[in-house]
Design a protein that fits this description.
8 helices, 5-stranded parallel β-sheet, about 30% helix, about 325 residues, Rossmann fold, 2 domains, alpha/beta, about 25% strand, 7-stranded mixed β-sheet
Length: about 325
Protein backbone atom coordinates (compact mmCIF):
# COMPACT_ATOMS: atom_id res chain seq x y z
CA UNK A 1 0.00 0.00 0.00
CA UNK A 2 1.45 3.32 -1.10
CA UNK A 3 1.66 5.89 1.69
CA UNK A 4 0.32 9.36 0.90
CA UNK A 5 2.92 12.07 1.26
CA UNK A 6 2.04 14.75 3.80
CA UNK A 7 1.14 18.09 2.24
CA UNK A 8 4.07 20.46 1.89
CA UNK A 9 4.13 23.82 3.60
CA UNK A 10 4.66 27.11 1.80
CA UNK A 11 6.28 30.14 3.42
CA UNK A 12 6.95 33.62 2.07
CA UNK A 13 9.89 35.98 2.40
CA UNK A 14 8.63 39.48 3.21
CA UNK A 15 9.65 40.86 -0.21
CA UNK A 16 7.55 38.29 -2.09
CA UNK A 17 4.43 37.93 0.07
CA UNK A 18 1.96 38.87 -2.68
CA UNK A 19 3.43 36.45 -5.22
CA UNK A 20 3.76 33.72 -2.57
CA UNK A 21 0.09 34.14 -1.64
CA UNK A 22 -0.88 33.78 -5.31
CA UNK A 23 1.30 30.67 -5.64
CA UNK A 24 -0.21 29.16 -2.49
CA UNK A 25 -3.73 29.89 -3.77
CA UNK A 26 -2.88 28.21 -7.10
CA UNK A 27 -1.41 25.23 -5.25
CA UNK A 28 -4.46 24.97 -2.98
CA UNK A 29 -2.73 25.56 0.35
CA UNK A 30 -2.57 28.34 2.93
CA UNK A 31 0.65 30.21 3.48
CA UNK A 32 2.51 28.95 6.52
CA UNK A 33 2.74 31.05 9.67
CA UNK A 34 6.05 32.70 10.42
CA UNK A 35 7.35 35.76 12.19
CA UNK A 36 10.09 38.26 11.49
CA UNK A 37 11.34 40.14 14.54
CA UNK A 38 13.39 43.23 13.72
CA UNK A 39 15.81 44.66 16.28
CA UNK A 40 16.41 48.40 16.63
CA UNK A 41 19.75 48.19 14.79
CA UNK A 42 18.16 46.53 11.74
CA UNK A 43 19.13 42.93 12.55
CA UNK A 44 16.21 40.52 12.30
CA UNK A 45 15.28 37.03 13.41
CA UNK A 46 13.08 34.54 11.55
CA UNK A 47 10.87 32.00 13.30
CA UNK A 48 8.39 29.43 11.98
CA UNK A 49 5.20 29.57 14.04
CA UNK A 50 4.12 26.00 13.24
CA UNK A 51 5.83 22.64 13.12
CA UNK A 52 7.63 21.69 9.92
CA UNK A 53 9.33 18.52 11.18
CA UNK A 54 9.53 15.87 8.47
CA UNK A 55 7.78 18.04 5.85
CA UNK A 56 8.82 19.31 2.45
CA UNK A 57 8.73 23.08 2.63
CA UNK A 58 8.84 25.68 -0.12
CA UNK A 59 10.40 29.02 0.78
CA UNK A 60 9.36 31.67 -1.75
CA UNK A 61 11.52 34.76 -2.16
CA UNK A 62 13.11 36.69 -5.01
CA UNK A 63 16.57 37.99 -4.12
CA UNK A 64 16.60 41.40 -5.79
CA UNK A 65 18.48 44.20 -3.95
CA UNK A 66 18.84 45.16 -1.15
CA UNK A 67 20.89 42.27 0.20
CA UNK A 68 18.42 41.96 3.11
CA UNK A 69 16.20 39.97 0.74
CA UNK A 70 18.89 37.36 0.16
CA UNK A 71 19.81 37.30 3.84
CA UNK A 72 16.20 36.73 4.87
CA UNK A 73 15.93 33.71 2.56
CA UNK A 74 19.18 32.29 3.94
CA UNK A 75 17.94 32.71 7.53
CA UNK A 76 14.66 30.98 6.63
CA UNK A 77 16.56 28.06 5.10
CA UNK A 78 18.78 27.75 8.18
CA UNK A 79 15.80 27.92 10.53
CA UNK A 80 14.02 25.22 8.52
CA UNK A 81 17.06 22.95 8.59
CA UNK A 82 17.34 23.31 12.38
CA UNK A 83 13.60 22.61 12.71
CA UNK A 84 14.10 19.22 10.99
CA UNK A 85 12.31 19.90 7.71
CA UNK A 86 12.62 16.87 5.38
CA UNK A 87 13.23 18.82 2.15
CA UNK A 88 13.92 22.55 1.86
CA UNK A 89 13.19 24.02 -1.57
CA UNK A 90 14.21 27.61 -2.23
CA UNK A 91 11.71 29.03 -4.75
CA UNK A 92 13.45 32.05 -6.29
CA UNK A 93 11.40 33.54 -9.12
CA UNK A 94 14.23 36.06 -9.58
CA UNK A 95 17.76 34.88 -8.78
CA UNK A 96 19.63 38.02 -7.78
CA UNK A 97 23.36 38.62 -8.48
CA UNK A 98 23.09 36.42 -11.58
CA UNK A 99 24.70 39.04 -13.82
CA UNK A 100 28.02 38.34 -12.09
CA UNK A 101 28.38 34.81 -13.46
CA UNK A 102 32.03 35.05 -14.57
CA UNK A 103 35.18 37.15 -14.25
CA UNK A 104 34.93 39.75 -16.99
CA UNK A 105 37.97 41.64 -15.68
CA UNK A 106 40.67 41.00 -13.06
CA UNK A 107 39.97 41.04 -9.32
CA UNK A 108 36.17 40.77 -9.37
CA UNK A 109 33.91 38.18 -7.66
CA UNK A 110 31.71 35.57 -9.27
CA UNK A 111 28.69 36.53 -7.18
CA UNK A 112 26.28 34.04 -8.79
CA UNK A 113 28.49 31.14 -7.65
CA UNK A 114 28.86 32.62 -4.17
CA UNK A 115 25.07 32.89 -3.79
CA UNK A 116 24.71 29.25 -4.89
CA UNK A 117 27.21 28.16 -2.24
CA UNK A 118 25.44 30.23 0.42
CA UNK A 119 22.07 28.65 -0.38
CA UNK A 120 23.51 25.14 -0.18
CA UNK A 121 25.51 25.85 2.97
CA UNK A 122 22.38 27.22 4.64
CA UNK A 123 20.61 23.93 3.90
CA UNK A 124 18.62 24.22 0.65
CA UNK A 125 18.10 20.78 -0.87
CA UNK A 126 16.54 22.05 -4.10
CA UNK A 127 16.16 25.33 -6.01
CA UNK A 128 13.35 26.39 -8.34
CA UNK A 129 14.00 29.55 -10.33
CA UNK A 130 13.03 31.22 -13.60
CA UNK A 131 14.99 32.67 -16.53
CA UNK A 132 18.48 32.84 -15.08
CA UNK A 133 20.64 35.53 -16.63
CA UNK A 134 23.00 32.74 -17.74
CA UNK A 135 21.85 29.11 -18.04
CA UNK A 136 25.19 27.79 -16.81
CA UNK A 137 24.48 29.12 -13.30
CA UNK A 138 22.64 25.82 -12.78
CA UNK A 139 26.09 24.20 -12.78
CA UNK A 140 27.13 26.23 -9.73
CA UNK A 141 24.84 24.03 -7.59
CA UNK A 142 25.36 20.51 -6.25
CA UNK A 143 21.62 20.16 -5.54
CA UNK A 144 18.79 19.83 -8.12
CA UNK A 145 17.84 23.06 -9.90
CA UNK A 146 14.55 23.39 -11.75
CA UNK A 147 15.14 26.22 -14.22
CA UNK A 148 11.80 27.41 -15.60
CA UNK A 149 11.22 29.67 -18.58
CA UNK A 150 8.76 32.56 -18.64
CA UNK A 151 8.10 31.77 -22.30
CA UNK A 152 5.57 29.25 -20.95
CA UNK A 153 3.34 32.19 -19.96
CA UNK A 154 4.61 34.97 -22.26
CA UNK A 155 4.25 33.18 -25.61
CA UNK A 156 0.48 32.63 -25.09
CA UNK A 157 0.16 36.35 -24.22
CA UNK A 158 1.81 37.31 -27.53
CA UNK A 159 -0.35 34.87 -29.50
CA UNK A 160 -3.47 36.43 -27.98
CA UNK A 161 -2.43 39.83 -29.38
CA UNK A 162 -3.17 38.41 -32.86
CA UNK A 163 -0.41 40.48 -34.46
CA UNK A 164 0.66 39.97 -38.06
CA UNK A 165 4.17 40.43 -39.49
CA UNK A 166 5.89 39.69 -36.18
CA UNK A 167 9.66 40.00 -35.85
CA UNK A 168 11.41 38.92 -32.65
CA UNK A 169 14.37 41.06 -31.60
CA UNK A 170 17.22 40.48 -29.19
CA UNK A 171 18.54 43.64 -27.48
CA UNK A 172 22.09 42.25 -27.53
CA UNK A 173 24.19 39.43 -28.94
CA UNK A 174 23.95 37.41 -25.72
CA UNK A 175 20.17 37.15 -25.98
CA UNK A 176 20.12 35.76 -29.53
CA UNK A 177 19.48 32.19 -28.35
CA UNK A 178 16.40 33.36 -26.45
CA UNK A 179 15.17 35.36 -29.45
CA UNK A 180 15.50 32.38 -31.82
CA UNK A 181 13.65 30.18 -29.31
CA UNK A 182 10.71 32.62 -29.18
CA UNK A 183 10.72 32.93 -32.98
CA UNK A 184 10.37 29.16 -33.29
CA UNK A 185 7.11 29.19 -31.32
CA UNK A 186 5.80 32.33 -33.01
CA UNK A 187 6.98 31.39 -36.53
CA UNK A 188 8.63 34.78 -36.96
CA UNK A 189 11.79 36.45 -38.22
CA UNK A 190 14.65 37.53 -35.92
CA UNK A 191 16.80 40.66 -35.70
CA UNK A 192 19.62 41.38 -33.26
CA UNK A 193 20.89 44.61 -31.74
CA UNK A 194 24.62 45.06 -31.39
CA UNK A 195 25.61 47.45 -28.60
CA UNK A 196 28.83 48.82 -27.18
CA UNK A 197 28.99 50.02 -23.58
CA UNK A 198 31.21 52.66 -21.97
CA UNK A 199 30.40 51.13 -18.56
CA UNK A 200 27.58 49.21 -16.87
CA UNK A 201 24.11 50.59 -17.76
CA UNK A 202 25.60 53.15 -20.22
CA UNK A 203 25.37 52.43 -23.99
CA UNK A 204 27.85 54.15 -26.30
CA UNK A 205 26.59 52.82 -29.64
CA UNK A 206 23.86 50.51 -30.94
CA UNK A 207 23.38 48.99 -34.40
CA UNK A 208 20.68 46.72 -35.83
CA UNK A 209 21.39 43.44 -37.62
CA UNK A 210 18.38 42.63 -39.81
CA UNK A 211 15.35 44.36 -41.32
CA UNK A 212 12.30 45.60 -39.39
CA UNK A 213 10.56 47.80 -41.95
CA UNK A 214 6.81 47.17 -41.91
CA UNK A 215 7.11 44.67 -39.04
CA UNK A 216 5.58 44.45 -35.56
CA UNK A 217 8.69 44.01 -33.46
CA UNK A 218 8.79 42.25 -30.08
CA UNK A 219 12.02 42.62 -28.11
CA UNK A 220 12.66 39.71 -25.71
CA UNK A 221 15.04 39.78 -22.75
CA UNK A 222 15.46 38.13 -19.37
CA UNK A 223 15.35 41.39 -17.42
CA UNK A 224 14.89 45.12 -17.77
CA UNK A 225 16.87 47.24 -15.31
CA UNK A 226 17.35 50.92 -16.23
CA UNK A 227 15.46 50.40 -19.54
CA UNK A 228 18.22 52.27 -21.39
CA UNK A 229 18.90 49.43 -23.84
CA UNK A 230 15.22 48.72 -24.33
CA UNK A 231 14.13 52.27 -25.09
CA UNK A 232 17.12 52.93 -27.34
CA UNK A 233 16.42 49.73 -29.28
CA UNK A 234 12.76 50.72 -29.69
CA UNK A 235 13.78 54.14 -31.00
CA UNK A 236 16.23 52.59 -33.47
CA UNK A 237 13.62 50.15 -34.77
CA UNK A 238 11.00 52.83 -35.29
CA UNK A 239 13.60 54.87 -37.19
CA UNK A 240 14.15 51.80 -39.41
CA UNK A 241 10.46 51.64 -40.30
CA UNK A 242 8.92 49.25 -37.79
CA UNK A 243 5.11 49.37 -37.45
CA UNK A 244 5.24 48.95 -33.68
CA UNK A 245 7.64 47.85 -30.96
CA UNK A 246 6.77 45.87 -27.85
CA UNK A 247 9.01 44.22 -25.28
CA UNK A 248 8.88 41.05 -23.18
CA UNK A 249 11.10 40.84 -20.11
CA UNK A 250 10.80 38.19 -17.43
CA UNK A 251 12.13 40.28 -14.54
CA UNK A 252 11.08 43.91 -14.17
CA UNK A 253 13.87 45.33 -12.03
CA UNK A 254 13.05 48.85 -13.27
CA UNK A 255 15.60 50.80 -11.24
CA UNK A 256 16.25 54.52 -11.32
CA UNK A 257 14.21 56.34 -13.96
CA UNK A 258 13.32 53.17 -15.87
CA UNK A 259 9.55 53.58 -15.61
CA UNK A 260 9.75 57.21 -16.78
CA UNK A 261 11.92 56.14 -19.73
CA UNK A 262 9.39 53.50 -20.73
CA UNK A 263 6.49 55.94 -20.47
CA UNK A 264 8.29 58.40 -22.77
CA UNK A 265 9.59 55.76 -25.21
CA UNK A 266 8.37 54.41 -28.56
CA UNK A 267 7.33 51.15 -26.88
CA UNK A 268 3.68 50.19 -27.26
CA UNK A 269 3.94 48.16 -24.08
CA UNK A 270 6.35 46.26 -21.86
CA UNK A 271 5.16 42.86 -20.64
CA UNK A 272 6.83 41.50 -17.49
CA UNK A 273 6.10 38.82 -14.89
CA UNK A 274 5.50 39.43 -11.19
CA UNK A 275 8.79 37.80 -10.15
CA UNK A 276 9.69 41.24 -8.73
CA UNK A 277 6.95 43.52 -7.33
CA UNK A 278 6.18 46.44 -9.67
CA UNK A 279 7.12 49.73 -7.98
CA UNK A 280 4.18 51.63 -9.48
CA UNK A 281 1.60 50.98 -12.15
CA UNK A 282 1.67 52.60 -15.59
CA UNK A 283 -0.43 52.09 -18.71
CA UNK A 284 2.58 50.90 -20.73
CA UNK A 285 3.61 48.09 -18.37
CA UNK A 286 1.54 44.88 -18.28
CA UNK A 287 2.19 42.24 -15.62
CA UNK A 288 1.57 38.54 -16.32
CA UNK A 289 1.58 36.38 -13.22
CA UNK A 290 3.97 33.43 -12.93
CA UNK A 291 2.14 32.02 -9.87
CA UNK A 292 0.32 29.16 -11.68
CA UNK A 293 3.60 28.08 -13.32
CA UNK A 294 5.45 27.85 -10.00
CA UNK A 295 2.49 26.23 -8.23
CA UNK A 296 2.29 23.53 -10.91
CA UNK A 297 6.01 22.79 -10.77
CA UNK A 298 5.97 22.71 -6.95
CA UNK A 299 3.07 20.24 -7.08
CA UNK A 300 5.01 18.01 -9.49
CA UNK A 301 8.14 18.17 -7.33
CA UNK A 302 6.12 17.22 -4.25
CA UNK A 303 4.59 14.23 -6.06
CA UNK A 304 7.79 13.16 -7.84
CA UNK A 305 6.37 13.86 -11.31
CA UNK A 306 8.17 15.07 -14.40
CA UNK A 307 8.23 18.81 -15.13
CA UNK A 308 9.57 18.37 -18.66
CA UNK A 309 6.46 19.67 -20.40
CA UNK A 310 6.83 23.02 -18.58
CA UNK A 311 9.85 23.89 -20.70
CA UNK A 312 8.86 25.82 -23.81
CA UNK A 313 12.44 26.93 -24.43
Amino acid sequence: MKLKLPDPKIFACSQSVTLAQDIANSYGLELGKMQKNVFSDGEYQISFEETIRGRRIFLIGSTFPPTDNLMELLLMIDAAKRASARHITAVMPYYGWARQDRKDKPRVPIAAKMVAKLLQSAGATRVITMDLHADQIQGFFEVPVDHLYASTILVPYVKNLNLEDITIASPDMGGSKRAYAYSKFLNSEVVICYKERKKANVIEHMELIGEVEGRNVIIVDDMVDTAGTLTKAAELMMERGAKSVRALATHGILSGKAIERIEQSHLEELIITDSIPLKRTTSKIKVVTCAPLFADVMHRVQNNKSIGDQFLI
